[in-house]
Amino acid sequence: MWHFVNDMTGPDMRELENRDGVIYTPDGRNLWDVATEQYNEKRAAGEIDALPMEFLYKDYQVFVNEEWDKEDGCGLTIGYKNGRLYDIDTISEIGLGRKSR
Predict the structure, then answer these.
(1) 11, 12, 20, 75 — which has fewest CB within 10 A?
(2) Distances (CA, A) of 73 to 2, 19, 46, 70, 90
(3) Where is pLDDT greater, at 88 or 10?
(4) Mean per-residue pLDDT for 84-98?
């Protein structure tokens, strides 16, 4: 879900304003609306295959309502470098002597 929203909109949704159950883009638009518009444009142009939007939206709502910590981490891109695991999409690393929180 995170990769889909990021690919469709650009900004990292984890860093955007989350107010009253809505995540806002830097210009004040509803992030899901922007992602859906971009998806529909790319789908109409044949640039992207059909996706299960209702399932993506359910995952999106988990993040919106419960924050990133409750999001299923299965979609994270994990790397290993210098003896540490890290989420490729962030700059923080977890390794010996370090905790995730």
Answers:
(1) 20
(2) 10, 23, 30, 8, 13
(3) 10
(4) 58
The answer on pLDDT for 26 being more than 90 is yes
Cα dihedral value 52, 54, 59, 61, nearest 10 = 150
In Å, what is the CA distance from 6 to each residue of 82, 95, 98, 101?
27, 27, 28, 24
Take residue 52 and report the two structure tokens written for it: 């299960």
CA atoms within 13 Å, Cβ hemisphere of 21: 3
Nearest to 4 by CA among 45, 52, 71: 52
Give me the torsion for CA of 49, 12, 18, 35, rounded to 10°: -20
